Structure prediction request, 304 residues.
Amino acid sequence: MAERQHTIAKSVSISGTGLHTGQVGTLTFHPALPNSGIKFRRIDVEGCPIVDARVENVVDTSRGTTIAKDNVKVYTIEHIMAALRGLNVDNVLIDIDCEESPILDGSSKIVISVLKESGIVEQDFDRKFLKINKKIVYTHPKVGCKLIVEPADNFSVDVKVDYNSQVLNVQEAHLNDISEFESEFAPCRTFVFFQELEMLLNYNLIKGGDLSNAIVFVEKQVSEDDLRRVASLFHKEMVSVHEGGILNNATLRFENEPARHKLLDLLGDMTLLGMPVIGKVTAYKPGHFANTEFVKRIVKEMNL
Ligand SMILES: [Zn+2]
Prediction:
């Protein structure tokens, strides 16, 4: 039997701080008509312009996935997109009153719970799927990443990450059915290496970061001075390194939480296709640039 499209039952809101811009904003999710897809509406801009969450509107992938229409941007949409895909929500209009989606706890968990609080409702139209009919490969030799989708009877994703790191091992994550997303992937938080952190903070690239919305891996021995400096940038008295090379009070929610988060990000970026894929996805070292280029390759190869 064909699956039906879904939207949410009633409008719901969520507020928080954007990771990169530090802007405090509110997202309000509204039910939307069948076949309308996922759209963001910048209600703080004159005329309330709408930006379709589609791959052709991706304008930047440097620290997250940013979409724009006529220079009106929405930053860091990937965890929101993953939550919508994970709950099989096809159609929703998202009002946002600033440039960047709130980072919340760095995962999709809170968005999932807010959407569920609204309720997910079936609509009177069949869902369209993209059934992959040939192997499609994207590689980026410089970065060493490789993303593949090939024909299969259902949707699955295998992710492998390798940061050539002593504290973050080579890790894998597997999603065998989208129904696993909510419990197995949605709670997985974003992560960063300590060595990048100071640079990011100094260049003001993570204005909304604090030590609760990212896992920080500490690769090398760091001095008390370095720790104190990073602590002060986070407005904390002091931070420390726990066993396993993780900073502060964060404890991993899953042993392979980073690989699971990369799978979450990939799922969010693949949602920019505008319909769910039926096919087997295999990703080695995915990232937002590679993910969105991969999606563009699928659009081209499948003549969408
Ligand atoms: Zn992410």
In short: Residues 191-247 form one domain. The CA atoms of residues 56 and 296 lie 8 Å apart.
